[in-house]
Design a protein that fits this description.
Strand order of the largest sheet: 13-21-20-14-15-19-16-18-17
Helix content: 25-40%
Largest sheet: 9 strands, mixed
Radius of gyration: 23 Å
Strand content: 15-25%
Number of helices: 20
Structural class: alpha/beta
Distance between the termini: 46 Å
Low-confidence stretches: 575-579
Mean pLDDT: 94
Oligomer: single chain
Shape: globular
Number of strands: 21
Length: about 575
Amino acid sequence: MSTILGISAFYHDSAAALVVDGRLVAAAQEERFSRKRHDADFPLLAVRYCLAEAGLTVADLDAVAFYDKPLLKFERLLVTYLGTFPKGLPSFLKAMPVWLKDKLWIGQTIRGELDEYEGPIHFTTHHQSHAASSFLVSPFDEAAILTVDGVGEWATTTTGVGRGNRIVLDREIRFPHSLGLLYSAVTYYLGFKVNSAEYKVMGLAPYGQPIYADQMLRDLVHVAADGSFALNMDYFSFDGGLTMTNDRFAALFGRPVRDPKAELTQFDKDMAASVQRVTEEILLRLARDLHRRTGLTALCMAGGVALNCVANARILNETPFTELFIQPAAGDAGGAVGAAFSVACETMDEPRRFRWPHANWGPAYSDDEIEAVLRGYGAPFERLDEAELLCRTAAKIADQQVVGWFQGRMEFGPRALGARSILADPRNAKNQSVVNLKIKFRESFRPFAPAVLAERAADYFSLNTPSPYMLLTAQTRGDGLPAVTHVDGSARVQTVHADQTPLFHRLIAEFDRQTGCPVVINTSFNVRGEPIVCTPDDAFLCFMESQMDALAMGSFLLDKADMAPLYAARSWQRTFQPD
């Protein structure tokens, strides 16, 4: 048996994962510890957490697995810069010092950061890590595999098959032709941050009409019947420049790049709807062709594009695939998990022993630890038994209060799933704007997800499959959940299962007992510009800096109305500057 540390780092969403005897023990993104959103640095804090969770040290590791091959990526950069000279010169001059100083020497960096480690370091390809992060932890013994993201080394899209403990990726689309980068290019054009705000484009899309989709398919990207595609690079600059799009792109659509501070217009909404429609069409063609070639009915997906829950739902509903598995950290962070399992199964030939059971792989904190933090701030609180905590928390939500919920091990992946969540009543339409503007400090168009008891999901949503990680959309039945129903009648559903998140399930069941509604608003416990909270300190400060009404943390319940003395003293404050 083996102990393998998986690492993803140096691009965005660095993470670490620990696999012991073929089973995942811990996994977390570095941003949760460093408090730097999308932190790309070496995930030393996440590594330390993973080892501590397992009671191990660096000396106990049998192998370290890194989620891509730096030399291949460097080759791609050099070939691209030479091919786009002189356009690529500024980008070349900006990138090369970083590569020559750090990114080419990742093996040495790993040994330097893990100063006791002398064992082997394995480098898997980026899309092999993505594929392994899905199939090798999936419930399937055999499945088709589709990975789609911005770019790894050269590949941007791969397809293949997983059987037993082996993966074969037999087809790929190569840079610069990238569905993820097409989506990011429109994200940039609409004034949002690349590699950070693509989900905003997905949330904005239902407010528009895909009236530019045909133009995109005619001028920006050529798509074949089998889903293979090629971008028209005359309109893009990401291959060698410092921006995603160029002047020809702006001229094509008759508008300059949107100022991030400008009001969103109907044009922006229609552009979002159009790139979303194009993305869905390409993914549907890729999936249908993959099924035609493999004859399999189970599909595993990974890569950042696999977080597009609207497209995922269409794949499940409109292709011959009847089963779909996507683990909650499908993007680069999940590459740490995939690299570790790829080394365990494919390099060391260990059998598969692990099936992904839930999303909670981060740290938990005891009541004693939480109480020490609260006393350190001088915060008034009540300590309750579980039944009273659930009853009082559900009553606050029913009374139209917004509640921070901090319980158990932190989620792995970009979405809060009932461990680090902000909760509210979905029956009150006003809560959509209240939580967006007063709690999250974010754009008013952003939708919220409903967390629903899994056994009651079909009563409220047109959903016939579990969606435990908020990776599928479904139409809402009726009009009783206005705060979680998007303008197109859809919702990004989380089905809450008693065997996966038992305390969260019991809370929603208590809310159902009190109100007759087995659904709550569930959004991530953070404010704009910050990662999801990790520690009791993070949670308390976020509670105090927002207009949350209450905080249920461990066995403790805090009421904002009791915090007046702390606000008067200002002793709890820190420097806080949301983006």
